[in-house]
Design a protein that fits this description.
- It is built from 11 helices and 13 strands.
- It is of the alpha+beta class and about 475 residues long.
- The strands form 3 sheets. Strands 2, 3, 4, 5, 8 and 9 form a 6-stranded antiparallel β-sheet that branches. The protein has a 5-stranded antiparallel β-sheet with strand order 1-13-10-6-7, sandwiched between helices. Strands 11-12 form a two-stranded antiparallel ribbon.
- β11 and β12 form a beta hairpin.
- α1 crosses α3 and α8 packs across α9.
Length: about 475
């Protein structure tokens, strides 16, 4: 991959060098045509016999350049060769000394030629060497043949011209390398910018797509929340059956894996009036938990309302079988289930029955805290025992009783100064402190306590706490 990129960069550099060479060659020829006739300024210093020769020598480079440009545009001859011929003409012309003893003028003319060639940054190293050899060789030859008897060697300017030539070769070499490196860096930056722009465009398209999908998902979850809310008992229905009660329900997401349920049995027959209250904590939270909770709600209606099963432990037994059957847990790897507490109230007989699946019920009588611990297995999920049977507990309600059903979300919430869980012990102590307060005050205290404890920590689970106070006085 690296070799392919390097080959591509080299190819791009060759194309760019060719383009720059053509442009710079045209500019070099044009500058020679326009500026080199300025060397005629020495006309007044030339001997009368040499004036015509001097003019022709000084005009030859411009004429060669003009003719070369015409040939380039007319016949499409490579402009670089035109530039080379023009430079040879310039170097040849600079070897002529209109005033043999004027070393300053001679050095100035040759220096100007070399500077002109140094301004051509893309001349190849071997070409710059050839031009230097040509310049030095031509000047030495002309000096020996023409000027040796007229100008002493130390005053000939040949040493200075040779040194300038060496400088021209070095400068040309370094400028060529600098131009090449600058181009490669620039090209790499452009390529990276193109890649960044392409990635930016792709990310913007992905972001727009994600935004659209997120909007659709949010709308769908919002609609699911409305459906789940409609399946929950209405507050007025709970207060009608249990005038002294509260429900503190705080889902972690829009939809919840925690669920509560209420149904009445023979509501219009006081001697047979009963009620069943359920607090359910399904596997997971959010959408997965909500799906399991809706399955649980549907099966609860089937077991209680259609099959007329009212005993809490039998409700759990039946739900367990139905969940495993519905989710095909015998043949699949699905282990979803629910922890739940089921309370059955017989108002006429003043009794409370409770059965729990990995869930505990707390109740108070005579300001004493009591716990009814559920069985240590869930409804649904993995079953290792041959037959799963839940335990039924019975509590007499001949005394004023306050009881609570809850999921583990409240006591598992992280917070406090050390970022630890609220824990069961602290939760029981909180209920101990507030159980004698009016139900709205209890709910408010639980909300405030949780907010203070949680602080800046994220909510880790769905939270459900239900409180009921029964008194027959």
């Amino acid at each position: 991959m690296k070799s392919i990129i390097e080959d591509h960069l080299h190819e791009e550099w060759l194309h760019e060098k060719q383009r720059l060479r053509q442009r710079l060659s045209i500019w070099t020829i044009a500058l020679t045509i326009m500026l080199y006739p300025g060397t005629l300024a020495d006309y007044s210093m030339v001997a009368s016999a040499e004036k015509s020769f001097f003019v022709w020598v000084r005009l030859i480079p411009s004429m060669v350049g003009a003719l070369g440009l015409f040939i380039f545009y007319a016949l499409r001859v490579p402009v670089q060769w035109v530039m080379y011929i023009t430079l040879v003409a310039v170097l040849t012309s600079s070897a002529y000394r209109p005033v043999p003893g004027d070393m300053v003028n001679f050095v100035f003319t040759n220096g100007a030629c070399l500077i002109l060639m140094s301004a051509i940054p893309l001349i190849a190293f071997w070409q710059s060497v050839l031009f230097w050899v040509y310049l030095v060789g031509l000047n030495v030859t002309v000096y020996i043949v023409v000027y040796a008897g007229k100008v002493p060697l130390p005053q000939s300017g040949l040493a200075f011209t040779t040194a300038l030539g060496v400088m021209f070769v070095v400068v040309s070499r370094f400028r060529h390398e600098i131009i090449r490196r600058n181009f490669l860096q620039s090209f790499q930056l452009k390529s990276q910018n193109h890649q960044i722009n392409d990635q930016k465009t792709e990310l913007e398209a992905l972001n727009e797509d994600l935004h659209e999908k997120n909007s659709m998902l949010t709308e769908s979850i919002g609609y699911a929340k409305n459906i789940q809310t409609l399946l929950l008992p209405r507050p007025q229905d709970i207060l009608r059956v249990f005038p002294q009660s509260f429900v503190f329900f705080k889902p972690r997401n829009q939809v919840s894996g925690d669920f509560y349920w209420l149904t009445e049995i023979h509501p219009h027959q006081p001697d047979k009036h009963e009620a069943i209250v359920v607090a359910m904590d399904c596997t997971g939270h959010g959408v997965p938990g909500a799906l399991i909770s809706m399955i649980g709600e549907s099966l609860l209606k089937q077991v209680v309302n259609k099959e007329k099963i009212y005993a809490p432990h039998e409700i759990l037994n039946s739900l367990h079988r139905e969940i495993r059957h519905t989710l095909r847990q015998k043949e699949s790897l699905n282990r979803d289930g629910m922890d739940m507490g089921v309370v059955h109230i017989n108002f006429a007989q003043k009794t409370l029955q409770y059965a729990g699946a990995c869930n505990t019920m707390i109740y108070f009588q005579d300001q004493q805290l009591h716990q009814l611990k559920g069985d240590s297995y869930s409804v649904g999920g993995e079953q290792r025992e041959f037959n799963r049977c839940f335990t039924n507990h019975i509590v007499s309600l001949d005394k004023p009783t306050t009881f609570y059903l809850f999921s583990d979300g409240y006591q598992d919430q992280f917070g406090g100064s050390e970022g630890k869980k609220f824990m069961r012990k602290r939760f029981r102590e909180t209920l101990q402190q507030i159980h004698t307060l009016p139900m709205p005050a209890q709910k408010q205290h639980l909300e405030q306590t949780l907010t203070q404890w949680q602080g800046n920590h994220e909510q880790v689970d769905d939270i459900l706490v239900m409180g009921f106070c029964l008194s027959y006085d």
